[in-house]
Amino acid sequence: MLDKIDLSKGFTKKESKKLIENLGMELSALQRECKRLQIPVMIVFEGWGAAGKGTLINRLIQPMDPRGFKVFTIQDESEEEYMRPFLWRFWTKTPAKGRIHIFDRSWYRRVINDRMEKNLDKDELRNAYNEIVFFEENLSLDNNLIIKLFLHISQKEQKKRFKKLEASPETKWRVTENDWRHNERYDDYLHVYEEMIEKTDTEFAPWTIVEATDREYAEVKILSTVVTAMKNKIAQVEAAKAEKPGETLAGKVKSPYKTTVLEGIDLNKSLTKDEYKKKLKNLQEKISKLHSELYKQRIPVILAFEGWDAGGKGGAIKRLTEKLDPRGYEVIPTASPNDIEKAHHYLWRFWNAVPKAGHIAIFDRTWYGRVMVERIEGFCTEDEWKRAYKEINEMEEQFTNFGAIVIKFWLHIDKDEQERRFKERMETPEKQWKITDEDWRNREKWDQYEEAVDEMIVRTSTSYAPWVVVEGNDKYYARIKVLETVVNALEERLNK
Amino acid sequence: MLDKIDLSKGFTKKESKKLIENLGMELSALQRECKRLQIPVMIVFEGWGAAGKGTLINRLIQPMDPRGFKVFTIQDESEEEYMRPFLWRFWTKTPAKGRIHIFDRSWYRRVINDRMEKNLDKDELRNAYNEIVFFEENLSLDNNLIIKLFLHISQKEQKKRFKKLEASPETKWRVTENDWRHNERYDDYLHVYEEMIEKTDTEFAPWTIVEATDREYAEVKILSTVVTAMKNKIAQVEAAKAEKPGETLAGKVKSPYKTTVLEGIDLNKSLTKDEYKKKLKNLQEKISKLHSELYKQRIPVILAFEGWDAGGKGGAIKRLTEKLDPRGYEVIPTASPNDIEKAHHYLWRFWNAVPKAGHIAIFDRTWYGRVMVERIEGFCTEDEWKRAYKEINEMEEQFTNFGAIVIKFWLHIDKDEQERRFKERMETPEKQWKITDEDWRNREKWDQYEEAVDEMIVRTSTSYAPWVVVEGNDKYYARIKVLETVVNALEERLNK
User: What is the ipTM of this complex?
Assistant: First the structure.
């Protein structure tokens, strides 16, 4: 999930100055409001070394009344802390009503460290995260506002920052051997951080990922996140007082600084016809062999295809299955639910279609309809699609716990390419059936879909069931990428 | 928890006949209502072998329209089921809207079997239960009504029933070697069932324990539970339709057939003064030695004392600590929260008082105030005390995960004995400070407290932090039981 985020966002100093000034004034007023309404606030800073936690905490507290907040720097446990249950040191640091506690690293620190150094197994890890989720839920039910920020930079950026710090005699001491080891093991940490976010991203204590390459951008996003969260909490508390809890959801404000994925995708990737033919033949042969190996080893495979209309799902699925033994796979097209399906939970029809061990199920459109079309068309409530991320993650985790390989493809094209393909379909008699008025109507909602897809990929790209965004403007490139991804995933599992 | 339940409840045939007739008519009407409102209903039967699941399911369905329900008997997995993720077979069996699915054993079956045969470790087990809780939560959010019944009989009763079945040629085949093995290992299973109930007893899918010694009583309790749950669900759905969700809680109906603990306690137990003196000396010496061993091995101990006013908490704590090294223990009296405590989560002050590894903390009144005095006096909302059971269980589990020994004592006396002691206190000048008007006021709420205490003990007596009900009418007996319990628990841990 983290590796998919566009980290190039930035502001000029000039742009950000005014924004920061305004947000600061808002924050200062909101702090007073939180005090008046007796709301305890916890703000957690986690993220990469050298991502700028210290500086950014410093900037966040500038506009605040210093009598109302406290900053805690969480390092290794003291003797006193070590001799008590893990969460003791954090329970004792929870804020009183109306106060703000800011954590430079937090209860997540130990889980991350233990995970990397002690190699916690999957079950232990899940339980550690459960304890944390329970801690946050407890406090949140008791009216605490919990804001969790993850400061994200790339491996390259981190390296650059460490080097810069080392170059100056005053800051040299700040870069330790440990820091360099972390930088070398960036990918391992990435994986662990993803898991952390995914397991603890709850409605009552959500994570916000802060693209921290540009300090100004990061500062604006942090201020905006805190301001937005406080406003919503205040509205919720006021509504509860006035006994109009229903009003809160509708009046909810959103921070304009969103985490995006699709924007950063390079759609110029392509292959020549010759390259394509050669690779296709090779990959199809491989996959056919791997398929029988899967069957022998009883490994189920679930491949989920989503993407823009005319994004090339059909073509990719065709190339994928052409050389497969039809007794070992099934393509499951997903249309609008029929009456029997509507009479059940939305996941019921997909549970019904779970492949047997050793079989491949290819879903042409999937359970993700819940957080795309159903969200946008209002076929389900906001509560329903919001909790669907967690429901879907949990379902996919159950599949992979059972031993399944789960891969999800988003076939990505740009708006111009879609128009070209739509027109081509209308003009080609044998393709006309592929295009309907609904396709044109969906196209008008492109921006809404883009927002939904960005959120979907960030929230449901997990270590066990990753999303693969396929650059689809060139069909040859797209088909080969799908096949290669599948072949690599199967080889990796089978060679283990 | 299960071992504390009073299993002697019964009805005569005559008493139960009219009750069953009336409940059956209600059930039949409610089934139609659920259909009209499109509510899917799942009724789960779990419990001991020979507890009467088959018979009782049969009786439950008598009043129902057979076109609206289906009974599933869950046995070992078929080949088809074995080749798919664990919950697949149950997802596919979820009822459509308006239908009732009854499960003779369920998704709990495999967890219990695996736990006993494959020795699942603590983490694996917790995750298995998490998957189940998530499954039930998913369905419940989608408007399913989930009713879970645990049919409970004693080891002796089970043995009697197996023998009776064996005695008749027609039913002999029904008792297998496995059944006898289960009966021999009753205590192990008891432990596993307790864990199951504790981990999966949620607000959206609560367990009801059915005392199944007497078939008539069990039938009435089952019918009453199903009828009550349906009524509440229907009220909730109607209120949501009318957009008055707030009204539901207030209008909630309760089944009159409660699970009780205190009623079954024998308060005639006593010791002579000589017995008492001898035992006391011996136990105090032991505990003093064990205390230094605890300190060396860095094991923290948490002893929680609750009980009726004048139940003898003070006297028991005094005898417990008399010979202990004061540097290694602390008695923490719990009064009404002060202003700083009120500004935090209700558990905050108890977290602050968690003992260091190697130390003993003795709480004179505890965090259980939430589900007793705060519940009864309305100092917290119904939502708050209801979720407190889970919050408290989770907290105590975190303590024991850290290695702590946690024991909770309920000092039990009857109403007459309390009156005698109150009067004695009033008449004895040096004891007068011990009795206040509040004590007399609390006494008037005896029945409410008894209900709250019964519920508290059933919901929070866990494998890791059990409640010990101390028969307290005789002070000598009570003090010795407390000391013996502590000594046994410490010895058990230290001899490991």
Answer: 0.76
